Amino acid sequence: MAQRRSQLDLDSISCWICLDVMKDPVTIPCGHSYCMDCITNYWDGEEQKKKKSCPQCRKAFTPRSALVKNTMLSFLVEQLNRTELLTLKRSRAQKEINVSLQKTQQRMQDRKEEVKPLQEEEDAINCSADKALEESEKIFTELIRLLEKRRSEVKQQIKTEHETEISRVRDLRRNLEKEISELKNTETELKEISSSTFHRGFF
Ligand SMILES: [Zn+2]
Ligand SMILES: [Zn+2]
């Protein structure tokens, strides 16, 4: 009997207002049950002054219905001893834990599913970065090759211009030296002529 009662759903003997096991349970016309004090206090509240209604299903009652003690519920609640009540509370707590556990596991699964596309996106980013790097390497290699080629061309050009200029200057110098040498010869000849003419006593 104790085991059977422990399997009772704690919700069916709990008050919707105070959430505890019902004390002096009363059932109102809609069929919902509350502690006598809880529903009385609720109906005495400001909002309920004119029109009484069930806090759970909102069904209204006019005029205020007489509150009748639910003998069946009272009997059930009174029969429950502390140990059985504790067992019921533990079982309810266990149920809540299981629900939370399932929700947590589901959420974990959902997050794992969300990680997949992120991994794919990361792979795509890596791939495109690799391609961009490869492309830029190609461009720079080509630029370096062109610059090296141009450098060598400019070097060759300067060398050629240098040689041309040097040979132009050397030609000029050679010509001048040749002319100087010829002039020297002429000078010598003239001097000789002058000297022999003088000795022969032309003057
Ligand atoms: Zn209550
Ligand atoms: Zn109700």
List key phrases describing it.
203 residues; mainly alpha; Herpes Virus-1; three-stranded antiparallel β-sheet; two-stranded antiparallel ribbon; 4 helices; 69% helix; disordered N terminus; binds zinc ion; Znf_RING/FYVE/PHD; zinc
* Low-pLDDT ranges: 1-7
> What is the helix fraction of residues, given as a range?
55-70%
Give me the CATH superfamily of the domain at 2-80. Zinc/RING finger domain, C3HC4 (zinc finger)
Report the CATH architecture of the domain at 2-80.
2-Layer Sandwich
Strand content: 5-15%
Distance from N terminus to C terminus (CA atoms, Å) equals 176 Å
Pfam families: TRIM_CC, zf-RING_UBOX
Domain RING-type: 15-58
Organism: Gymnodraco acuticeps
GO molecular function: zinc ion binding
How would you characterize this protein structure?
With 203 residues, the chain is mainly α. It has a domain at 2-80: Herpes Virus-1, CATH 3.30.40.10. 69% of the residues lie in helices and 6% in strands. The chain is built from four helices and five strands, in the order αββαβββαα. The chain has helices spanning 2-6, 36-44, 71-79, 82-199; strands spanning 25-27, 33-35, 52-53, 60-61, 68-69. A three-stranded antiparallel β-sheet has the order 2-1-5. Strands 3-4 form a two-stranded antiparallel ribbon. The radius of gyration is 59 Å and the shape is rod-shaped. One zinc ion is lined by residues 15, 17-18, 34-35, 38.
